[in-house]
Amino acid sequence: FNDPPTSYQPDKIVGSGPYRLESWESGQKLLLVRRDNYWALDRSEAWLAAQPDYLTFLIIPDNTTTANALRDHMVDVVVDMPIEQFRYLRDEAYLRQYYDFLTVPGFKYYSILLNQDDPLMSDSLTRRAFAHTVDVDKILDKLLPGLAERVNGPVLPTKSYYNRNLATLPYDPTRARELLRQAGWEDQDGDGIVEREIDGKRRPLRFSLLSFTTPTSEAVSIVVAEGAREAGIDVEMVKQESRTLLNHLSGGKFTASFYAQGYEPIPDDFSQVWYSSSVPPSGTNRGNFNNPEADRLIERIARTTDPETRVPLYLRFQEIVYNNQPMIFLYSPYDRLVVSKELEHVPTSLAPNLNFNALRAAPATRADGLNSR
Question: What is the model's pTM?
């Protein structure tokens, strides 16, 4: 059952869907062909549809090649396009003649994760002060115009129990300095960086901000570092590959890090990410969040089956996280896809953002098959 060939060899794959795997060229493409004896050919539901005769999925790892494939009309659909490329190609007049550039709310958010085991970030006043130095509106306006929505906590805005009563923290270096003073941070040596006594020694509020190597994460990290400086916090951006960065987070070897968290389109269960006992390797509570009331709420949410009864539990949990500021919540990016104007399509937040089996060519441009990256 677990033998690898059963996952990619056409003659060994068995399924009840509308398409069968005709061929798989590793690292290049997959060809799916509609079954003649598909049991739901006469059904009207989109998820049961089988409109295209065949679907070719092309694997194009290079962004330049992807752009050229669009310009040469070699593909009909592109999913999960990088933000930077999507912004660039969306402004290309030629491509807009032939393709729709679509965005739909996604199931992830980005933040600055703070390590509460690090003495520099061990108190909520310092963490909240740091949050006031991040100009999230600038990030959205300059780096992600129309491509993301700001978030105030660990629940996505698409969820019905998203707590909209929690105000997003504004960029306010003056307020940040006030909170730092309340937390005991002062610039006594006049170098522009605040410091306080930790374990008998005065330490400056100076640390590294880990960042992914993508252009957007680097740009966001630069904005964070610039804003922090205005409040007397010295932040140095350190770029790392994803695997290396996650290893540092799981090992607790960080103070702050650019961070992404993904969720599912189902009621949230916070035990893996926010429960106190889920610190790595037991879970992914990488910031070492620990709050007894939050733990009790996580347990109650997990065993409460009635959706209406869960709502106040979700709202209170978000309040606790908001007051604690274990991370600086930034934004939830929209999923991005490009679709030929010759196709009838309905985008969805569910991956891969389209029902490929339900794609239909317009009557005047009916095609034998559809190509997708």
Answer: 0.88
